Amino acid sequence: MLELIALHKSYGPLDVLKGIDLKVKPGEMVFLIGPSGSGKSTLLRCCNRLEEPTSGAVIVEGEDITAPSVDLNKARRRIGMVFQSFNLYPHKTALGNVTLALVKVSRLSRAAAREKAMAALADVGLADKAAAYPAELSGGQQQRVAIARALALEPKVMLFDEPTSALDPELVGDVLDVMRKVRAAGMTMLVVSHEMRFAAEAADRVVFMDGGVIVEEGPPSAVFGAPREARTQAFLSRVKH
To answer: What is the mean pLDDT for each group of 10 consecutive residues in the chain (241 residues)?
Structure first.
């Protein structure tokens, strides 16, 4: 579903990604873990070209979306993204935030967009908050609206960039529950997160990055239970999992 081939990203002399090769199969949930500055978020942002790779290719459903001829707006419809900071429009209700993309991007009528947006809000347990503005919602609810907004566009792949790191601890569980539900529905997911217990329980595969390269990858039981590489062992000894 998603394949990265020899992906490099540099900012001047700084090499952030140093030749990443990664495949994510349809319906697979892959967790990216690693220390801050290891390139995880940059990798995610290259997947939908919010960051332009310096070289290499990003293949989505067999199409190279880094090719010069690609219709980037069309390609991005297949790749939903949920950010750390929610990125909701403060002057629009929860329903308005979800509806906007459906009207602007999917070109749906207002009535069709509203129906689809309400279904997406119901999927994340927030149908009763459709008329609420972001300032009237908790951080966890805002993040669930952001997930609904991404899901409403019916992407093929969902990217999650630290979706719970801005939340109070007691609100994290609701967002993780929604992510479990999205995974159970068969969505292909690439997740950057420090929620190690969630990764151990829910991920199909865990990828440990450090210094812009993939150091180790495998099923959670192997990476968390018996990491092979010294860098992985050192990182996991410093974090709760």
So the answer is: 94 92 94 92 92 93 89 85 89 94 84 91 92 93 92 92 85 87 91 90 93 95 93 87 55
The predicted model scores a pTM of 0.91
Quick count: other Cβ atoms within 10 Å of Cβ 69? 5
Owner of token pair 């980037």: 72
Distances from the Cα of 54 to the Cα of 26, 32, 42, 45, 51, angstroms: 26, 21, 12, 13, 9
Amino acid at 65: I
- DSSP letters of the chain? -EEEEEEEEEETTEEEEEEEEEEE-TT-EEEEE--TTSSHHHHHHHHTTSS--SEEEEEETTEETTSTT--HHHHHTTEEEE-TT----TTS-HHHHHHHHHHHTS---HHHHHHHHHHHHHHTT-GGGTT--GGGS-HHHHHHHHHHHHHHT--SEEEEESTTTTS-HHHHHHHHHHHHHHHHTT-EEEEE-S-HHHHHHH-SEEEEEETTEEEEEE-HHHHHHS--SHHHHHHHHHS--
Task: Report the distance separating Cα 19 and Cα 9, nearest Å.
Answer: 8
